[in-house]
Design goal:
The chain has 292 residues and is mostly helical. 81% of the residues lie in helices and 0% in strands. Helix 2 packs antiparallel against helix 4 and helix 8 (151-183) runs parallel beside helix 10. Residues 1-5 have low confidence and may be disordered.
Length: 292
């Protein structure tokens, strides 16, 4: 294997030397083929096999890739390929998500799908981290000068476009189903829910719009429906003091859920929904009870 790797490395060095020649310039297609085959392809294999990327690549591998990108970004026009490399880095991340991540998530359902989504998001963050390392020069100069989206934000945007936006309905349904199970005293994986909520937040690129629109609003609607039914049952079966105990326990439980896996933004709205459905809507009925 070592001999094979040395032969591959020697072959690439020979090919790159032939391309640069006396002019010292690297052709776009040949340079990208080297970056992709020596950087992205091994990275994908590591992610698919669950291996640690640092143990697979030596420092010299990264020096060669970084140097190639640096040279392609500093060549004189029209051989300066900064923008082309930016777009191809985006395309490489997109391709992996479309080919591997999305199908693996779509093949599963419910909590199993959430586990897979969580895994694929973590893998994507690893890819983005190494893309930032490889394209560090590109980010520090071209991205800033051309006012392009930083690579970290670009990675989140690509994941939203190629994976999250396609499975978001199924993800939301699975999250709400797990929360409903917990409200019915079933044990659920709170750590998983916390991680999935974190993905919603990350998809907003620093804002909470995705979280609020795609998860919080449906959650508040489901919460209102749940406590509408529960409160009606308590109002008919419980005395006024018992009803107040149930109300307090329910509000405390929702606050605990918020702390455990939801964003802090949701707490006030959750409490308000509970108070409305349990206390406000049944105030006259409970006050009319004999023991009130």
């Amino acid at each position: 294997l070592d001999l094979y790797e040395r032969e591959v490395e020697f072959g690439w060095k020979k090919k790159m030397a032939a391309v640069t020649g006396s002019r010292g310039t690297i052709d776009l297609e040949v340079g990208w083929e080297y970056i992709h085959s020596q950087g992205f392809v091994p990275l994908e294999k590591c992610l698919d096999g669950g291996k640690e990327y640092r143990s697979t690549f030596k420092a010299n591998d990264w020096v060669q890739i970084y140097t190639t990108i640096y040279q392609m970004c500093t060549q004189r026009m029209p051989q300066n390929y900064s923008e082309e490399l930016y777009q191809r880095a985006r395309a490489a991340m997109s391709s992996y998500l479309e080919r591997v991540a999305l199908p693996s998530v779509q093949d599963l359902h419910g909590e199993f799908m959430l586990h897979e989504l969580n895994l694929r998001w973590k893998n994507h963050l690893i890819m983005v981290r190494w893309v930032k390392k490889m394209f560090d020069y590109l980010e520090r100069f071209h991205v800033k000068r051309a006012e392009k989206m930083p690579l970290q934000a670009l990675g989140s945007a690509v994941f939203f476009e190629k994976v999250f936006s396609i499975v978001k309905k199924d993800v939301r349904d699975a999250v709400l189903d797990m929360i409903d199970k917990e409200r019915h005293d079933m044990v659920v994986d709170r750590a998983l829910l916390r991680n999935i909520v974190g993905i919603y937040v990350e998809m907003g690129a620093g804002e909470l719009e995705v979280y609020k629109e795609e998860l919080e609003k449906p959650l508040l609607k489901a919460t209102a429906s749940f406590y509408e039914q529960q409160a009606a049952k308590w109002a008919s079966e419980c005395s006024f003091p018992e009803f107040l105990v149930r109300a307090e326990q329910s509000i405390d439980a929702e606050i605990a859920r918020r702390v455990a896996f939801l964003h802090a933004h949701s707490e006030e709205s959750l409490v308000r929904v509970c108070e409305t459905e349990i206390l406000v809507n049944h105030e006259s009925t409970m006050l009319a009870k004999e023991n009130s």
